[in-house]
Structures
1.
Amino acid sequence: MTRPPLHIRSMQLTDCDRVSQIRVRGWQHAYRDIVSDAYLDKLNAEEDAELRRARFGRGDGVQLVAERDGEVLGWAAYGPGREGEVPEGNGELYALYVDPEHLGGGIGHALLTEVTERCASYPRLYLWVLTGNTRARRFYERAGFRPDGTAQSFEAGGEEVFEVRYVK
């Protein structure tokens, strides 16, 4: 049986609930052994959706969704590099998440390809990956991204979490 085609489109305000579900499930799936269980278990898709709706349309980059047969299965956000995050004049992939139930089905690859094509005018495209997220690191490396030697940390649930910067 052939799957319906995947469609990449601009995110709409009505997608916020589903995008937040994907984002929260993505964190809980990908970061389970990296970030504390207590922090991950407290993540709430409804609260995240409220933040998404409040931020929607503010010009914080471009947000895309991947949908198949009317169901949103993945989300990506990108735009100009954030000040202090990447060298000025470059692009940045801010986020890319796929519903964990649909990993390995080409959705992340399709979103990343679309973002890369849309960011072709930037000399470089940067992104950040949690150091311990081996699956994501391999995914980005297969797509031609490489760590550039820059690392940073942030606080999640009272614990320091480390991430590395990749560039293409």
2.
Amino acid sequence: MKARLDAIDWHILKELQQDGRMTNVELARRVGISAPPCLRRVRALEEAGLIRGYRTLLDEKQLGYEVTAFAMVGLHSQTEGDLIAFEQTVNNWPIVRECYMLSGEVDFLLKCVAPDLQTFQTFIIRELTATPNVDSVRTALTIRRTKDEAMVPISK
């Protein structure tokens, strides 16, 4: 473990994962300490990089993004410079919501969200496969989401 956390720190992290919008007073009540030391602990966890940020999770389908798909990308070259160049390109594509470099037969896995199938197909044909160094692209459309746990499993 990179950081030394006590039971209260773990409890703070668990509570904030469940509801990052709660007030410091409410968080302090839930973890059993007063508000000032709770705030100091949260700030220390942020400064240490354990808390990377706070987000609101949106329902993509209700916002008109009907297609969630994955693209498995193989590159011609996996030199560090080529990997960095591909990652920089990916960062400019709003349709790509998550990107993972993998080991094995596939170099990158891209999670894509699009308003419709045509938009996703256009992205694959005009953007992804046309990108320098891209050797192969395989795609998979999701049928339904069966689990959505965006959080780290904290059992403490």
3.
Amino acid sequence: MRVMSVALAAALTLVCVSTSLSGQRPDDQIDARSLQLLSEGRSAKAAGNLDQATDLLETALAVDPRNRQAFITLAQVAETRGLPGKAIRLYREALTLEPNDVAALRGQGEALVMKGAVAVAKGNLAKIRTLCKGACPEANELAAVIAKGPPVTTAQNDAKPATAKP
């Protein structure tokens, strides 16, 4: 009697697990609506409409959070807006989905250089070189950005003139 109830519980567990696994999509199959939104977001980015591109790309990620290309394109939009910190985070999300994505590694390396983290960017460059066996334009582009170094920032002067007391 005791064995019968344990066997029944195990059988029910097996049935529940197998049906939930068979209903999931494979990791390499991205939702078609997300891909369509990605395409529209890239078009908006190319046209210079960064607000619309951001909206479309974020919607693409809401539809399917496994859309790595949407993360990369959204990171490029963030870089265009001068937000390297946000771009680094978005590239990290893309690299979470595919750690060996050379385009995401290059983009993250460039954003790291813009933030001044040249040593970490050199780590990305080393990883790209190990992934690429032959000529690798991504490695050359990142090496050029690293050689150029982070942008020089200067202190901004306030518009208020100093007033002298009589």
